[in-house]
Amino acid sequence: MSDFAGFGSEMLPLAQVGKWLPVFVTPIWVLSIGLLLGVVATAVVHGILSILSFIPGLGNLADDPKRGVTFSLIAGVIFSGILCFFYVPQGGENGQLLFLPLVTLGMILGFGLIYGMWHRTRAEWLSILGEGVIPYILGTLGLFAVIGLGSSPFVEKPMAILESIPAVNLVGDGTVVEVAMIEPSEDPDTPQFLPADIAYNFRNVAELRIESDKKVFLADSDKAEAFSRAPIELNPGSTEAITYKYEDREQPPIPGDPSKLHIYNQEIDTARVVFTFKNLPQVPQASSIVFTAVAFFLTMTGFMALRQAAPRVWALALSTAKNEMAQPLYLLLLAIGIFAVLLFGIFPFNTLGDDIRLLKDSGVTMIMVLGMLLAVWSAGTSVSDEIDGRTALTVLSKPVSRRSFILGKYTGIMLAVLVLFVILAAVLLVVLSYKPIYDARETSQQQPPWQVGHEEIITTLPILGLYFMETMAIGGIAVALATRLPLLANFITCFAIYVVGNLLSPLVASARENTELVGFVGKLIAVVVPNLNSFNVQAAVDAGNAIPLIYLAAAFNYLVVFVVAIWMVAMLLFEDRDLA
Prior knowledge:
Layout: H1 2-52, H2 56-59, H3 65-87, H4 99-116, H5 119-130, H6 134-150, H7 158-163, E1 175-182, E2 193-195, E3 205-212, E4 216-219, E5 232-234, E6 242-245, E7 262-265, E8 271-279, H8 287-309, H9 311-325, H10 328-346, H11 355-388, H12 391-396, H13 402-442, H14 450-482, H15 487-502, H16 504-511, H17 516-528, H18 538-543, H19 549-575
Antiparallel strand pairs: 1-8, 2-7, 3-6, 3-8, 4-5, 4-7
Helix pairs in contact: 1-6, 1-8, 1-13, 1-14, 3-4, 4-8, 6-13, 8-9, 9-13, 10-11, 10-13, 11-13, 11-14, 11-15, 13-14, 13-19, 14-15, 14-19, 16-17
């Protein structure tokens, strides 16, 4: 009897694990499916481009660098125009903020198209995937995907999620308008239900609005004896419209099969019945699968295009990145970041239910601080020390310009920082998926659904993107200063700029209420020092608000303008620097 009691006590934890494990692994599985689709899309698209490279006119297009860049720019302009045509109107009154991000994506696609068809790219794909930082990024994403896909047996309703992927709206909000023109009955005394002849898939309908300019009746058959319910009356006028929302769990006003929808026009003139459908995936979280796949495809295409179109910059960048990632400091920062993120996951913040917000805030801030430390340190060791040690003179004695040297160093530093961000972000996302379960168990609350963990992950990704942009801004400053200042002075200056840059918005706002001299000084600082507060969304994180994509576009615009400006400053500082 005691043996059976012991067996039961051992099985109890397994039963508890079986309850929370699907909630934990489903968000990770969703992103893993996105990565898998991204791999498939990348392989298919670039496989087609590799086949096209056998055509002499296309495969040799990039043999001449100037010709390759020219045709890439032309293709990029075409792609940019298409993207702007579809997506700028969706931004509403702030749609102009989308121009620069969409043009950037268009240029990635343009260069990816031309250089993807290059015969050298076809022969060098294995080298591209196995060199520099790409194996580290692919290895991290691959491990994340293996964990997610390996947990497929425990995922909640995986087929429902997969079936929702085709319904994801890449363009628009899913609004579709169908119009049915219904003739009046030939015999006024005999109701005649005519087919609506419209197409819809009610599995993906999230909202529906039906309007008519005549009095009509909606039914699910053309014969009264075949009605499964009484016909629904619809009177003319917008105030009499029939509305339906899937989230209300009400009975739909029209049948699920479009062929069964019939309408009786009670009046003597033709009726115009307008159906406004808003189609969304039945599982909304399936949208993250598509966007993850698109992000992976664009990232790999961007790496390939940069390598093939700017080989000297890429060679300098890879050399810099590999050198910095081989330093003991890099491994130390990586270990500190992983340990801190795991600690934040179980650390009791005592916030009465808001621990996960502090976890997100602490985790992304820790990743950003470590990335900035790496960027400033790398700028000192790879730029300042090479100039002082005359290593830069050896590099520039080869066919490498000073512009390519600075751009290659900055790109290499940012690639090393990107690997740090990707690894620590992957750990943070896994912790965020488990954190709602951990908090519920610690506070003896009901176990949350897996959608809660997925939402925490998806709302964290834009924050990581903003903080990486801020790290890029500080990295640009560090590289520019490294052409003239030693490492310690660079650290102190970048730290001061970081502090002042994050206090810039409150400083300018307070300066307006003071004297003209104080206001002038505040505006002068705002011109000289970057407004890093544009990338700081701590208030939104603490309030639990999601970051809209239009805000990311605005921050990207500011980053591009600032990086171009700081690169010009770096060239002015480095152009007349005596390297001998």
